[in-house]
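Re-running the complex after MR caught last week's input typo. The corrected sequence lines follow. Everything else is unchanged.
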Amino acid sequence: VTTGTEWLVDAEGCRPETLRDLDGMRRLCDRIVRELGLHVVGEAAWHQFPWPGGVTGLFLLTESHLACHTYPELGTATFNLYCCRSRPPWAWEERLREHLGAARVTVRRIVRGPAAEQAPALTSRREETQP
Amino acid sequence: VTTGTEWLVDAEGCRPETLRDLDGMRRLCDRIVRELGLHVVGEAAWHQFPWPGGVTGLFLLTESHLACHTYPELGTATFNLYCCRSRPPWAWEERLREHLGAARVTVRRIVRGPAAEQAPALTSRREETQP
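Corrected-run output:
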């Protein structure tokens, strides 16, 4: 038994101007929601911070949640997608290159809940752990 | 350079009635926010699902976000706390035993952003990975 799967996605080398474009980030997250067939409860919460102008988006989903944070000063965007029911994989790397100009995308998949220990974290790049 | 630290906390063996008590879960999350000196932007979003009555809470923070999901049917609650600035540790295990009657609490700490690969996931219980 698990309570679902969480994807932790970190995109580097993105265009700073795209990371501070609230409407563009909204379109990207709306695409994630649409293409994965997710269901938003209420309205997504979006906020733009003062210069350098990073944005945060939070979606309360019937499937759990989607969160997005951008750091224009670092050229980085991070995403959390936590789904308590099975979802097909999404082409994070390809889509984030397309929308954000990302040079490198790291996807980590983590199983949540009681079975978490039996189900290790997986990353699309490489694995490192220490005790 | 990182974009912060994320704590993934999974609590098992919790009292089901506590996990469907929206006000109680709100008090717990408000305590996390208060004791860690976090700053909420706008209002937290809370939602209670139909029976078995799990709840979700999402907090947009100047420090990034806090998310909470409960699964009364599994006796499980999960928390994500993503902080883009350094925070002292919080006594997750002790507090979740106290508030939720948790029998077991797993805390995983994950570094986000460009340095993610250099900084492995840490868990308070044990480590497992696979390629």
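None of the earlier attempt is carried over here. Chain A touches chain B at residues 1, 3, 6, 8, 10, 12, 41-42, 45, 47, 49, 56, 58, 60, 62, 64-65, 67, 69, 71, 74, 76, 78, 80, 82, 84, 106, 108, 110, 112-114, 116-117, 120-122, 125-131 (CB under 8 Å). Chain A has three helices and seven strands.
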